């Protein structure tokens, strides 16, 4: 069966690389289609929903180069990266044309601005063909993060279980069942597609070691899903569920002095950090509401009012 997305198509046993236009715009998404020699599932992989989460983007680029039609039983669609203009502008977290966060606008809107149209294109051209969706993220340029994975919680019980089973093969310590609805993978979940969002790497840095760990995770998932043959590479960790995540925002703008690092275990009442003015006067101090694990925290010295500062969860 032909694999077709926008103006690109790959016949059985073929690999096609090129660009998919976002509706009536000049924005072109770099895409690789790999149509296996044997029939099987169709899997969607995206990197760069967030523009400067580089390890996920480079992982998508390398997977697109490495995987050949004879390697897979089924079909693979890879976007590398999805938010191309944000990536090229080096503007973290947003699509620069309209300054919207792409992972907050799903399912998108064909009458909307560019971000809405990218989301709409991902849904109508890619997700509707997918049996499973892997979205690769990380901490943004301004975030320090420990690796973890989200799996959809807003889907059919079967899709949630399949997403959780795939998340379980990832080499990280933590996983989180997501109840969100407006992210790319959340919307796929709402449509009954098992979907996960992986978090690895941060602070605008990428290196081959992190990309190799990321690729190992994706290859293990592709083997787990039956798209690739072979045995899974051994992992150091098996993720455990964290629940009741707190996404703590700052009540005030100012200079941010964290007391914790990503991956730290904290006790209830422990200081997470404080915001001070330019004269070192404390403006706000933040404490842990429960014993938990820090998943990520802002690493820039400046924080906006209502800007995220710490995300943590508990067992
Ligand atoms: Zn992200």
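^ structure tokens above, recovered residues below v
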């Amino acid at each position: 069966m032909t694999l077709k997305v926008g103006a690109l198509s790959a016949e059985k046993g073929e690999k096609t690389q090129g660009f998919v236009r976002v509706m009536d715009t000049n924005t072109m998404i770099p895409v690789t289609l790999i149509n296996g020699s044997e029939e099987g599932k169709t899997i969607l992989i995206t990197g760069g929903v967030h523009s400067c989460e580089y390890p996920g983007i480079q992982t998508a680029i390398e997977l697109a180069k490495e995987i050949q039609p004879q390697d897979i039983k089924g079909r693979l669609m890879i976007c590398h990266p999805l938010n191309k203009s944000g990536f090229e502008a080096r503007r973290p977290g947003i699509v620069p044309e309209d300054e919207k966060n792409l992972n907050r606008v799903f399912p998108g809107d064909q009458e909307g601005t560019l971000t809405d149209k990218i989301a709409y294109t991902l849904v109508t051209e890619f997700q509707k063909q997918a049996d499973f969706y892997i979205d690769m993220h990380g901490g943004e340029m301004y975030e320090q993060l420990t690796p973890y994975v989200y799996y959809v919680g807003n889907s059919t019980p079967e899709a949630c279980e399949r997403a959780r089973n795939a998340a379980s093969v990832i080499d990280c310590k933590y996983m989180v069942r997501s109840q969100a609805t407006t992210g790319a993978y959340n919307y796929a979940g709402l449509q009954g597609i098992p979907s996960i969002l992986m978090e690895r790497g941060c602070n605008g840095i990428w290196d081959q070691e992190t990309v190799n760990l990321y690729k190992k995770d994706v290859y293990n998932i592709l083997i787990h899903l039956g798209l690739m043959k072979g045995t899974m590479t051994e992992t150091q960790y098996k993720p455990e569920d964290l629940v009741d995540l707190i996404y703590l925002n700052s009540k005030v703008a100012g200079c941010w002095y964290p007391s914790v690092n990503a991956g730290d275990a904290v006790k209830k009442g422990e200081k997470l950090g404080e915001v001070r003015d330019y004269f070192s006067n404390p403006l706000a101090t933040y404490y842990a509401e429960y014993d938990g694990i820090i998943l990520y925290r802002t690493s820039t010295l400046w924080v906006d009012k209502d800007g995220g500062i710490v995300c943590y969860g508990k067992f």
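Residues 255 and 302 are 5 Å apart (CA to CA).
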